[in-house]
Amino acid sequence: MREALFVKQNTEKWKRFNELQEANPDELADRFVEITNDLAYSKTFYPNSKTTAYLNGLASKLHRSVYKNKKEKSNRFVHFWRTELPLLFLEHKKQVIYALAFFLVSCAIGAISAKYDDTFIRLILGDGYVNMTNDNISKGDPFGVYKQENPVLMFVQIGANNIFVAIYTFVLGIIFSFGSIVSLFRNGVMLGSFQYFFFSKGLGLQSVLVIWIHGTLEISAIVLAGAAGLVLGNSMLFPKTYTRKASILKGAKDGLKIVLGLVPIFIIAAFFESFITRHTEMPMWLSSFILLTSAAFIIWYVFIYPVKIYKKTLI
């Protein structure tokens, strides 16, 4: 069957399912089965088409509705992080990849700029921080900045600041996604120049083993917050089959869920930075273990686990 005919035969049904707000669980389950059958057919014959992408999003929406109406023994919050949030990462996988690409390019720009302009690092990081770090390096304690404040106070301040940055990056997406891109760019340039600063001092590996104990989770969460901003902005620019109002409401809701879902990650990152990173003398194997475990968790939770959950819904 030609794709155009397939779409024509099912358009009204898909629109009706898409506009579905409330229904009994049995009806929702029946509609979910119908959509997954259509999705399987579309994936077989039109794997890279917009129709397949649309049906994939609609199937995810109906899946969440089924779960919402299903009586769960587990806590609602547990269900959110175990099922709902990972499926959002899968549904908006493109935005996650775009946000990561923007951020990595920005990091490269920051590092290259710092390499070829001696004043760039001071412009980005500030004279106070650069001078303090140089003093710490001369004293043989290059990462002494993490030991200066009370760990509990650091935990509160850093956690609150990171959550604010994430919400700020998300909300900026309302400016047609451009605002979130700018925020990702600023943070990426700062990270690139910051990391180059230590490499230029011959402290590259040591800086990675110390700073990325907390930075792996913290930076990953900021990138995901940028992706949430792109979800919001793209919902305004590309409503697809939704009305623009419905698209914006969905984009805002999905983006906000992603940002709120990042809060535990920011809290853990703040804990690492306040209580763990200060122990710069810890064995290399231990810091490497924390860093690699954090990276593995992010890759698994954002990219691998959501696919496993989605495949279960098709069985």
From TrEMBL:
PANTHER family: SLR1478 PROTEIN. This is Stage II sporulation protein M. InterPro entries: SpoIIM-like. Keywords: Membrane, Transmembrane, Transmembrane helix. It holds the Pfam family SpoIIM. Coiled coil: none annotated. The chain crosses the membrane at residues 96-114, 163-184, 196-213, 219-238, 258-276, 282-304. The keyword Membrane applies.
